[in-house]
Amino acid sequence: MKKFLVAIAIVLFMSTVAFAEPFLTCDPQPDYDVSHYIITGDISVTVQAIPAPKQTGFVVLWYDLKDLPVGEYKINVVAQGDAWPSDPTPFTFTKSLVVAPKSLRIER
Fold this sequence. Notes:
The protein is α+β, with helices and mostly antiparallel strands. Helices cover about 15% and strands about 35% of the residues. The protein has 1 helix and 9 strands; from the N terminus they run αβββββββββ. A 4-stranded antiparallel β-sheet has the order 4-3-8-9, with no helix packed on it. Strands 2-6-5 form a 3-stranded antiparallel β-sheet, with no helix packed on it. The two termini are about 15 Å apart.
C-alpha cells in the first residue's frame, strides 16, 4: 500500500512540474494608459497588458517563455501607452531545463 501511495505522489508531483512554465512578468502598474508592452533584444514581441490578479485597476506584463529555447537572453521592455512609451527597462535571464529529481527513496 505504501508503494502505491508513493507512486501516486510521484505521478502527481511530476505532472505538476511538467506543466509549470516560466513567465516574464512585472509588478502591477496602474492601467491609466498602459495598453501593451514591447520586448526587444534577443526576443522581439509585443504583448498585450492584462489585468493584474487581485488588483482592480492595475495591469501587468505576462509573457509565456515556454517556446524559447534554453539559453541566455538580454532584453529591454517598454510599457506603451496611447501617446507615450516608458523608458526601456533592461533585463537579462537564463532559461534552463527543469531537471527531474534523482535517487528517489523512502527513509526511516
